[in-house]
Predict the structure.
Amino acid sequence: MTAQIIDGDAIAAKIVDSLKERVEELKADGKEPHLTAVQVGENPASKIYVRNQKRSCEEVGIKYTLDELPDDTDQNGLAGRIKELNCDPTVSGIILQMPLPKGVDARRIQSIISPLKDVEGMNPANMGRLVYGEAKPGPCTAVGAVELLKSTGVEIEGANAVVVGHSEIVGKPIGLLLLGLNATVSTVHIFTKDVASYVKNADILFVAAGKAQAMWMRYRGESKKNTETPLPDLSALIPADMIKPGAVVIDVAINRIPKGFDSDGQPLLNKKGKTAMQTVGDVDFEAAKEVAGHISPVPGGVGPMTVAMLLKNTVDTAREQRA
Ligand code: NAD
């Protein structure tokens, strides 16, 4: 069997396109969607996120503001700023830029963002709504991943669905969304005794562990202290022979790992003399696509859906709170 590839780029582009008209309607109604990203201090990684968020918002006509706070901003200072934005009628959505400085509790801050402006769907009130089958607004990656499943048209009701990973941001909400669609859900994680025994029975499989990247980061840390540290096993967490023939496989993971190693165990280098890196998921995509019925690639699967869902949440919340 050769699987149908789930084209996350195309599905996300369609969603993004459909938002443009809705944004124009809201603007005409005096309800311009306005996303404010709160960032504490400078960080190279978050600079890239901010640039991408701004571009994506502008593409659909959403106003985007970066609210930069000094890097010595503490928990109270950040909480105070969030409360001001909650009360600002010109701001319809708030996003918290990660990472936050040491000592600032991200979860507590997320719970201060008004549920009406919580475009990431991370406020406990919005998380709780998932129990009632409502994702309004829902956590972007989880909702986006489940949208990819829906796009296949396979029967979800009664299907055996397995979610690998039980994080608050991805694994747990995917499990709740699938229960809302009447799948029979098993969530497995690092403490599960025999992950393969669950995965092998999955008609629908979501994988969100980030195994290879975690191994690579750990190796990099340890090898600085001990040069004899053995190379880690960066193979895919889910090999093809673990997948039930015909299953739908949605790979959420994003692992940035070296492309390969030379005979001395040194990472291969790119033209600039730096480690040549690649982005892969948790599933052995090339082999798995010969077994699965539908499969999402990495990159080009869940990643673009996360951005599309953030934009959709921003438009939905602007409409809801200003109705
Ligand atoms: P996390 O580290 O918070 O959680 C990882 C989960 O995987 C945990 O529940 C852990 O128990 C489980 N796990 C780890 N190793 C395992 C193993 N060997 N066997 C079984 N379970 C294992 O990570 P997260 O934030 O949930 O992200 C998971 C992956 O999804 C990462 O690769 C991350 O980069 C990716 N991600 C992608 C997007 C996107 O937009 N596509 C968004 C968020 C996260």
About this structure: The longest helix spans residues 8-28. The domain at 29-119 is CATH 3.40.50.10860 (Rossmann fold). DSSP finds eleven helices and eleven strands in the chain. The CA atoms of residues 184 and 229 lie 42 Å apart.
